[in-house]
């Protein structure tokens, strides 16, 4: 190898004590000689297709996995299989990320995580009670009429039998007391551990502030929990020499978002062709910050093609993987539109230059 692999990474630039330790990262071999084509959306399972990407060739992999929140495309996953999927996908990234390159995962905490072990205790939602009957009212009625059942007490008090049961036992007899309680599940620690197990190191994290989901959202609840209005971008590093070039951004861009831990921009307002789009601004910022023009960007859960469109817009190349054949078609249309838009923009720019020359 003479200290340099096929992708140009110079092993001898590393400290001597690290050369032997990190040599396998630079010399990674792929027995499969048929690598996935660049600038293409490939249909198939990420677990099967990731090993077919050329080793050490991806400058940045940026993607958003299933969130385990009940979307149609993740309905086949239980929590254990969801964890197994994400940990395996992360592990398969290590051979293909270039030394010094990055893996960026956009994910949110699970806001409605069903936990059978959590005590099922009915909250006393004072402002939303449909009946003014209190627990004390029910107890007084029972003292006066010890032989009354729940239905007779309800008739006496002018309320429903569910109200009587809620006031006495803190539950809802029409299913509430038999349903598992829900809580917030923090996923950052899980993702970090899967990345560490694969050989990556946590490099950074950004918070994306999106449009808040208000009371008509499925995530709203009669509790003190906050509305759903932010997600995370966790960034992991593969050991190697990382090029740091702040000139990838203007001074104003660096000040406004390049150096900031919180990014704020609107989410996609209409998910009419895909359940879970993220705005092009999200992958665009990661691509501009962490890669150079001509670098290869990967998205192994490509969906509607947003990451590929961002790569094209920023002058990078891309590899996309998507399981659903219909989404593959959608992603290809997205990349075709972005390419056409770029060509038209260049054409208009050239026309302006030609006009100035005249």
Précis, in short:
With 358 residues, the chain is an alpha/beta fold. It contains eleven helices and ten strands.
Q: What does it look like?
A:
This protein has 358 residues and is of the alpha/beta class. The protein folds into three domains: 1-30, no CATH class; 32-114 and 185-357, Rossmann fold (3-Layer(aba) Sandwich), CATH 3.40.50; 126-178, Orthogonal Bundle (Arc Repressor Mutant, subunit A), CATH 1.10.10. Helices cover 35% and strands 19% of the residues. The protein has helices at residues 16-26, 46-49, 79-93, 135-144, 150-157, 161-169, 188-198, 251-258, 281-290, 306-313, 325-357, and strands at 40-43, 58-63, 97-107, 110-115, 181-185, 201-213, 228-237, 262-264, 296-299, 317-322.
Helices and strands in order:
Elements: H1 16-26, E1 40-43, H2 46-49, E2 58-63, H3 79-93, E3 97-107, E4 110-115, H4 135-144, H5 150-157, H6 161-169, E5 181-185, H7 188-198, E6 201-213, E7 228-237, H8 251-258, E8 262-264, H9 281-290, E9 296-299, H10 306-313, E10 317-322, H11 325-357
Helix pairs in contact: 3-7, 5-6, 9-10, 10-11
């Amino acid at each position: 190898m003479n200290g340099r692999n096929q992708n140009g990474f110079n092993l001898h630039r590393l400290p001597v004590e690290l050369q032997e330790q990190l040599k396998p990262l630079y010399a990674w071999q792929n027995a499969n000689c048929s690598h996935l084509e660049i600038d293409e959306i490939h249909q198939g399972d990420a677990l099967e297709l990731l090993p077919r990407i050329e080793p050490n060739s991806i400058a940045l992999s940026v993607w958003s996995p299933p969130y385990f929140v009940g979307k149609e495309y993740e309905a086949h996953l239980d929590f254990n299989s969801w964890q197994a999927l994400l940990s395996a996908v992360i592990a398969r990234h290590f051979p293909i990320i270039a030394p010094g390159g990055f893996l960026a995962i956009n994910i949110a905490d699970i806001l409605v995580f069903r936990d059978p072990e959590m005590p099922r205790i009915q909250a006393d939602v004072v402002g939303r009670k449909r009946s003014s009957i209190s627990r004390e009212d029910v107890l007084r009625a029972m003292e006066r009429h010890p032989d009354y059942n729940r239905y007779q007490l309800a008739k006496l008090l002018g309320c429903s039998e569910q109200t009587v049961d809620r006031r006495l036992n803190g539950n809802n007899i029409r299913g509430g007391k038999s349903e598992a309680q829900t809580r917030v599940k923090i996923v950052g620690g899980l993702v970090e551990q899967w990345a560490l197990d694969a050989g990556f190191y946590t490099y950074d994290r950004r918070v994306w502030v999106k449009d808040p989901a208000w009371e008509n959202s499925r995530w709203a609840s009669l509790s003190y929990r906050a509305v759903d209005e932010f997600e995370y971008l966790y960034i992991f590093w593969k050991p190697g020499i990382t090029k740091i070039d702040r000139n990838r951004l203007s001074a104003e861009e660096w000040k406004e978002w390049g150096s900031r831990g919180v990014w704020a921009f609107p989410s996609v307002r209409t998910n009419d062709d895909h359940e879970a789009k993220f705005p092009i601004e999200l992958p665009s910022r990661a691509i501009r910050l962490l890669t150079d023009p001509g670098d290869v960007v990967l998205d192994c859960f490509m969906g509607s093609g947003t990451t590929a469109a961002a790569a094209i817009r920023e002058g990078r190349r891309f590899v996309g993987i998507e399981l659903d054949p219909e989404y593959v078609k959608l992603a290809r249309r997205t990349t075709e539109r972005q390419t056409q838009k770029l060509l038209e923009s260049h054409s208009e720019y050239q026309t302006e230059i030609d006009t100035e020359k005249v």
